[in-house]
Amino acid sequence: MNEKPVVLKIENVKKRYMIKRIEDKNLNKSEKFKKGLKNFFSSKSSKEPFYALNGVSFEVRQGEKVGIIGKNGAGKSTLLKNISRITEPTDGRIEFLGKISSMLEVGTGFNGELTGRENVYLNGAILGMTKAEVDKKFDDILEFSEVGKFIDTPVKRYSSGMFVRLAFAVAANLESDILLVDEVLAVGDTRFQKKCINKMLEIASSGRTILFVSHQMNTIRQLCDRVIVLKEGKVIFDGDVEEGIKIYNDDSNIEKKNHYDYSNTPRIQTFINNHSEIKTLDILNSDNCIYGINDPIEFNIHCKTKKENIGDISLRISIWREDETPVSSFFSKPFTNINTITDFNVKVKIKEHNLAPGLYRVILTLCGNSSNKFCVDDMDNIYPAFVFEILNKDGTSHQWARVWGNSEIKDVDVSII
Amino acid sequence: MRKTVIEPNGKNFQYWKDIWNYRELAFNLAKRDITVRYKQTKIGLGWAIISPIVNMVIMTFIFGNLAGLKPDGDAPYFIMVYAGSIPWGLFSSSVTTTSSTFISNAGIMKKVYFPRILAPVGALFAKIFDSLISMSILLVLMVFAGYFPTWKFILFPVFILLSVILGMSAGLFLSAFNVKWRDIQQAIPFLISIAQYLTPVMYSIETIPDKYRLLYSLNPATGAVHAFKWCIIKEIPFDFTSFFIMLAWIVVLIPLGIISFRKTERTFVDIV
Fold first, then answer.
1. Do B270 and A17 touch (CB under 8 A)?
2. Helix (H) or strand (E) holding A361
3. Which of residues 134-193 of A touch B (CB under 8 A)?
4. CB 3.0 to 4.6 Å from A277: which of A352, A380, A388, B141, for a disulfide?
């Protein structure tokens, strides 16, 4: 078979950032002041190198649709930024043929005061199109965006849906040989998202080369014919889509065990107020967190309050599929009201979860009095707290097709009438 | 298909070609700046006329009447001060806008690649457009005062461009430091408001005693402002010293500015 030419070649690309040393946190005030003074006068400050990309190499042939996956901080976005020339690599070499355009975020450079039409031309120019090219594409853009007669209205008066639709329409109609896409498909309502994916499929089938970064494994499955898995700035897998997704999932799952200690687990600090925390968790009714399809799931959590008079405490349990698709959640009533700094234990039994066979992750959140408001007064959040697997009665998890969803509907009456 | 190579330290030979490919962007950015400014305003472009005229009236009253500063040659004071503020305004806004390019455009620049230099160039096109409006007001004022321009008037585009190029090259040089230390952004407006008094905007260069003339002319804006006034005002000698000092500044600042800007644009998104 005649191999297509290589259009993108990444050779041993490294990207170094200088970050502050962590031990600085533990210094007392006068030491901090001395250090700060020293840093002010010397260019060598107390920073250490961090490699966001550490020797990435691969080649992409014309027409390939490559998915790039990896955990947060694996270097996916940094890689796209280096390829699209937003920033420069510290080491290595990138070579490509033709024109690269990137959809790193739709709507970049849109100005609220300008009309839709003016913004289309401005945005087109920012993305490297000439006026003649935008003229040629204008009708397509207008039709795709479904903005219609509002095209001559300032975009600040658009609904947020109209805004992203127009922005996506401009970016999707770019003329380029290689397209870089970073999670932009999550725009608009479900119907428009579907339209976006179809547009991407259309671009893909037109023979253009696509590099696609996403956390949505289903979108990766739909769009890509090859997957590159990044971990800590390195390529750990390059090849078949399903195999890559499996490696990614295995890599991001935590070990299945019966006792978990969260004292060193990192939290996303912006979402929580730290008024109380989850210390440890014990699985009660299973070894290795494997359950039959109708088994209850039981565990104990050990918590500690860190502040007085924090009022009601309740628990939110969210269950996600291993590919990070949210599945379902449980919101407890406030179960305790603690006014001193103390430890407490909570016993949880999930009796009917209705989950289909497969691998799941559990996210535990300690909330204030409103457990069903996202991030309002969450005290602690552990993601993922633990991972469990649901098996069919015959001990496999394979007889459930993915297209059947993630839960089994129980208690349905069906009869011939 | 065109081949692009990206290597560390800016070994990117397509740079100048890229600027050409993206040339329309500068005009689009200028158009945006101009349209956005007058959107949702009742008198629109009228603001471009009102503010310089009010400014001129106040300066004429305070510096011309109260302080008794002397105009150049035979020109009425208000014509001279209005003429002087055009190149000065262009120079100072060129320095300010260009030096803060990386900060004010960080939002776009973190998401999309385009030759970064087009951002200040676009902004300065808009400023030049403004100065053309000021020029037409100046003409009206001159006719109104019965002080008609001579053939020298048609040379004004040269001096307008020189003011912009001077300001921009200084701004390009400063932009690199502005990314690292925001002190620059605080210092520039402050220095510029002082420098206005050290530049012959509100008085004639002849006011400065001969022994301080050379020192005074080291200010690059002196040459730019005086040369511009020369093409408006009839009886005024062309001051070659300050003009050539300004040209020397441009010759030095352009390569320095471009080198410093190029060096910064490659990785500034990691810092900003």
1. yes
2. strand A358-367
3. 154, 177
4. A380
pTM of the predicted model as reported, rounded to 2 decimal places: 0.72
Best probe of the B interface among A101, A102, A126, by most B CBs < 10 A, is A126
> Is the confidence metric ipTM above 0.85 for this complex?
no
Q: Which residues of A touch B5 (CB under 8 A)?
A: 93-95
pLDDT in tens, A118-147: 999 988 888 888 888 889 999 999 998 888
Q: Tens digits of per-residue pLDDT, A58-109?
A: 999 988 999 999 887 788 888 998 998 888 899 999 999 988 888 766 777 7
Asked if the Cβ–Cβ distance from A95 to B6 is below 8 Å, we say yes
Q: How far is A195 from chain B (nearest CA, A)?
A: 24
Residue B46 has pLDDT above 90, yes or no: no
Choose the mutation target among B6, B38, B180, B263 for the interface with A, i.e. most A CBs under 10 Å: B6
